[in-house]
Amino acid sequence: MENGNLIIDLQTSVCDAMRIIDKSDLKILFVADGMHLIGSLTDGDIRRFLFNGGTLNDRAEKAANHRPKTARSRKHASELYNRLYYIAIPVLDDCGNIIEIYVGDELPQKEQKLLHVPVVINAGGKGTRLDPFTRVLPKPLIPVGELPIIEHIMQQYQKLGCDDFSVIVNYKKELIKTYFRESENQYKVTWYDETTPLGTGGGLSLLKGKLNSTFFFTSCDTLLLSDYESMLRFHRENGNAVTMICAWKNVTIPYGIVEMGKNGAIEQMREKPELSFLTNTSIYIVEPEVVDEIPENTPITFPEVIQAQMDHGKRAAVFPVSESEWLDMGQLSELEKMRERLYGR
Fold this sequence. Notes:
The structure is a single chain. The two termini are 32 Å apart. The chain folds into two domains: 4-102, CBS-domain (Roll), CATH 3.10.580; 119-343, Alpha-Beta Complex (Spore Coat Polysaccharide Biosynthesis Protein SpsA, Chain A). With 345 residues, it is an alpha/beta fold. The chain has ten helices and 18 strands. The protein has a seven-stranded mixed sheet. It is globular, with a radius of gyration of 23 Å.
């Protein structure tokens, strides 16, 4: 049967399904009992399941769409595929068993919707994680392949129709400004100079009265290859003051873990367990009134800004993405991996 690698069984966990989806070009799986179709599963299905209280350890079948579009013949599948936007269509026999999964002759290209949202980049830090490179160059100008980090970020947003950039600078700021003055690529940039370090959130106070719409706020060392339209829609539909984009991180502890009880009794042993948790990507969607409430000339982290919003009854929420969609360019060990992901060589 064709495309059998798109099928998972009833025992597959949500966590394992996420890993398989991450590695798949189609970004979809089909849950089956034997070969009997149970449902389809995408990252969007998983995200909705987690929003509703599901966990990564639950069976993926619980997160699946139990009414996927199906076909009774390859010809029928081809007609559906070419007439409507589908990623993949399972062809079933009379008993509901999967005969094949039709994916067309080539992968469909989803039309990119332009968002036209302002982007604020915090580029004022010293980049200590990239020492000793940052003793010579500021972190935003550390090259990843043919371009510095900050340009990769800006070009990603430009693809979304987001070309209005506000950049907060401090450490080696004149080098950054000089680079952009002499660059062949032209960007619409407004610079905001910190005179003292204001942390990951305090620099936003320099933009009071400058923003009048929802905006993306990002550090200058992180890139997300994800669906920004879905993030923005989630932010707006839920009336969030801040949406924090978080990535699922899976870490295997390289040791056997032992839990000890009374008088040293062994209560539980786990050999090299895997931990799954959400980690902050330092990318946010923010409402302009949040900026107005940030104290001026006061060092503050952006998580502290979020906490202050929640303390005042404002809604802050998480939008989870997969680990593979997050490129953290702030670590030396990750730079080569980033270059390979961006340039494919």
